[in-house]
Every structure is written in C-alpha cells, then in structure tokens.
Specification:
Elements (H helix, E strand, L loop, with lengths): L2 H19 L10 H9 L5 H9 L4 E4 L3 H6 L6 E2 H4 L16 E4 L8 H10 L5 E3 L3 H7 L9
Parallel strand pairs: 1-2, 1-3, 3-4
Length: 148
C-alpha cells in the first residue's frame, strides 16, 4: 500500500469507528441494527412494567455498567455485569417462558442489546425492552434502588 493511501486510510477508519459508537440523537432515524433489535425484542411501556413488577411477573436486567447500576437501578433489577460474571451467584429464573425485561440508560442507549442477547442465548424467548430506561423511570418520579 502506498504511504499516502495508508495515511488517508487510517483516519478514515478511525472516523468510521467513531461514528458507529456515537449515541443516536432523538430525531435521528434508528440504525438498521437497532431496528432488528426493536423487532425481535418489543418495547414495553412504563405502565406495563410497573404493573408486572407489582404482580412479580417479570425479571429485570440492567445493562448499565457496574458503577451506574450501583448508584441507582430499577428496584429488583439484576446487573448484567454481575449476572454474566463467571462465578456469579445471580441466576435468571428456571422458567424460560418467564418475561425478561432489559433496559439501560435511556432511549438513545443501545447497551440493552447485550442484555437481550444474553437472555436469548440462555434460552429465554419472552424478552422485551424498556426503551425509556433509567431516564424515563426517574422522569416519572420512580424510586431507584442502590447497592453501594
């Protein structure tokens, strides 16, 4: 490869990688990969989620990093980081038909994809995502649970 071509290639690759990691803005169309996840793992409203939580009919997985989870998560949620750790004492329910709801920081966060994939690989089929995440939960005045 010519030195000039190589000099132009690396900045272009860096920009492409950076662009792919930037959050989606509220008015931006969803990237194609997000659309696939939205179809495979349908959204659930805050009203539906709170009803399911009150009836103990849901398992929540928080896909945020450990520090975010520890400083505040939806009550009863399991941390994906802790759940997926090699020697984890946390477990998903034995009944693989049980509803799993995954979430992260808010509507522009895609980390919930990892939690949905984790549950899917473990054999769960009834997976939804709470698109509003922590941002919507707090905006509705709901309490967070901490584990510091």
């Amino acid at each position: 490869m010519q030195p000039v071509a190589r000099a132009l290639l690396f900045p272009a690759l860096f920009c492409a990688l950076l662009a792919g990691s930037l959050p989606v803005q509220a008015n931006d169309p969803l990237p194609e990969s997000w659309k696939v996840y939205e179809e495979k793992y349908p959204p659930i409203s805050i009203e539906q989620l709170t009803t399911l939580m009150a009836n103990h009919n849901v398992t929540l997985i928080d896909a945020n990093r450990t520090s975010t989870y520890q400083s505040g998560h939806i009550p009863g949620a399991l941390s994906l980081v802790e759940l997926s750790a090699e020697n984890s004492k946390l477990h998903l329910p034995r009944n693989r038909q049980k509803l799993i709801v995954v979430y992260c920081g808010g509507p522009q966060c895609a980390t919930w994809h990892k939690a949905a994939d984790y549950a899917s690989v473990k054999g769960y089929k009834n997976i939804k995502h709470f698109k509003g995440g922590l941002k919507e939960w707090k905006a509705h005045g709901k309490d967070l649970e901490t584990s510091l």
